[in-house]
Amino acid sequence: MVDSTLDQVGKNLSEAMRFLGEEQREPEAATERQHFSRSCIPGPLQGDGQDVATVLRLVHNLIHEEEDEEDKPSQKMQNVGEHGQMALLGHSLAAYISMMDKEQLRKLTTRIQSDTTLWLCRLFRYENGSTCFHEDDRDGLVKVCRLVINARYEEYATEGYVVLNTRQPVIYQSASCRPGLGQHLCSQLGLPLSSLCTVPCNTLFGSQHQMDVALLEKLIKEDINAGKLPLLLIANAGTPGAGHTDKLGRLKELCDQYNMWLHVEGVNLATLALGQVTSSIMAATRSDSMTLTPGPWLGLPAVTAVTLYRHEDPALSLAAGLTSSHPVEKLRALPLWLSLQYLGHNGIVQKIKHATTLSQLFLQKVQSLTCIKTLVEDESDSPVVLFKFNQEESTASSESFCAGEKEVLDAFNRWLGEELAELVPTSGIDVVELEDEATCVRFSPLLTAAVLGTREEDVESIVEKMTELVFVMSSTMSLREDFREETHKRSPSLRYINEFAWPGLGVVRYEMQANGMDEDRKKQEQEKINTELLKKLQDLDTDILFSTGPEFVTEQGCIFVGMVTDDVDVSDLVDTIAALGRDIEESGKLLQNMTEVVRKGILEAELQLQKANEEKLVEEGMLRQLPVVGSVLNWFSPIQSSIKGRTFSLAAGSLDSTEVTYSTKAQADRPSLQDTPISSSKKLPGQKLFRRAGASTDSTETSCTQAEATFQEENPTGIGSSINPPISPPTPEMPHHTSGDLVPEKNLKSSSEIDDLEASEEMHPEGQEAEGSTR
């Protein structure tokens, strides 16, 4: 008969997971989530309690709070599966079991730990082993070191660290170990960093990622001669970055020779559960201890890591913390105990075999790509596939290599890994940094396949997407030098920025030509120009990505050009950038100088108005200037004035005579800056900008010429004008044949009336206007 409480624990867990995993929420739930978001600031505990549903709803809202604040798309919670639910149930049951009677609890925990130890030792071929379950996967190694110190220093239990002064202990680790592991050991054990010895990897013979055994033996002998005590060696069965395995058999012989403890860790230890195991991995079963991480291997959430070890003295194991006399601490094995029973031996082996099959399938397919280089020496046996984009494979020669090429390749490989991880989320692709190979892309299904549910179809998708991305990367890499040269040709208008960390065609900045301007002012204006230029480029009908680049860059106010294909006309692209920048700069100068132009025009008009009045006085005489007498004289003896009106052109910033205007009834035509021949860049209907129509440059020019009329017909005022900016900036000249083109001189009395000049108006001498009013 099943305990009703246990049954209720299972039901509550299922209900909680169902509630937290719901994707579609009702509209009122979104409003309620906003309410919880506003009240998420910690405050006093409410006096009245809340039911389970309310508490779970609060947890759900807190999980999705960041998505609501930043308007992110709702992210689906990871599906843990039924075997994962067993692990989660184990945590709930552990809390319930901890309230049992002490004697009953002791018997139950002893059975759970004994079963789990037996299953794991048989599964991973580790005979006569004991287990230590720990949350942090480094804690097992820390406790093993304490065990070795207690075993090698007999008086350590009574004298403490004083006995270590007699012979300083030394811990050896490979240079390929995970970063910070040795420092963590020293800090937890209270040892100086001088007790840590990092052994380099092979440099001349053998794998460049395996520990140099000959150099290790030399270091051990030197430490012994210096009065130190070689204590423990940490070896890898799958390095954290590349998945390489040390020569475990040779290292075990060396440890036996110098009475050292051998500890092994790494992802490749999972393959010990398979039917066929390589000899290099099988040697790990002879080690003194090894750490396993079944959680990611089997897709089990919140499952502890396990350290298997062999030691005959239980008292020393208890003193080192490898075992515990508290039954509650033994309940750490309960989630793994439940999950192992649920999966069974065949289910566990099947999951690990599925992951290794995925890695071998991916390796076979990725090796067919000539521009991809794989970096695992023992490729046929390694469950980790490490690869990178190789420029030497994608280009005919290495002549295009320039300064900073290594940084450029690192940026391209980083972009490749990030794009693959985004395009195929279930792939588990990630980017790793290696000391010798720099930035690489890693596919390690043993760590991700069980959690993400990676299938063979996902491997096909990875290879398909990678083929497309590598083609774009190869094209971009081959055109980077052309982009740099084309930019230098247009100096000083454009400046090429050497941003090696940018995965794209290149980085460019428009340099404004302003002599004598203050540096701070020039910097601000230049930043405005490049910001506006970036907006115009982003509005163009093209597949090329223009951006401000990554968050942390050495140069500010630049335009970062993204990946391109091989049919991009780099010269046309650079021409467009330079022309648009020049257009923005000149337009800005026009707006800045418009006030000064109008002010000077008004002053000139005032001078000419005064001169015209003086000439009028000389020509007509004093009598005609008198209000009554002048009208009578003009009536008896009309006079034809030779004084002409004036027009003020905002485009030219000059005063001109209206004689031509009155004779032709239209303002004199001026060459419009808008009619200036534009750039020769054209595109065929449906063709993206900067694309060559033919396979070569010559055919491109021909096809572009033939498509010119069609392009102008389809784009009379749209994209064509923005892509092909005029050589000089357009000036705000007013429309022709309007009375607004003439500015009356009598209204141009002072420079303070600039705001009233919305158009040009006709200017008459003061005397003639008086005549009209008298009539």
Automatic annotation (TrEMBL):
Residues 663-775 are annotated as: Disordered. Its cofactor is pyridoxal 5'-phosphate. GO terms for biological process: carboxylic acid metabolic process. InterPro entries: GrpII_AminoAcid_Decarb, PDXDC1-like_2nd, PDXDC1-like_3rd, PyrdxlP-dep_de-COase, PyrdxlP-dep_Trfase, PyrdxlP-dep_Trfase_major. Residues 394-476 form the PDXDC1/PDXD2 second domain. PANTHER family: PTHR42735, PYRIDOXAL-DEPENDENT DECARBOXYLASE DOMAIN-CONTAINING PROTEIN 1-RELATED (PTHR42735:SF1). This is Pyridoxal-dependent decarboxylase domain-containing protein 1. It comes from Maylandia zebra.
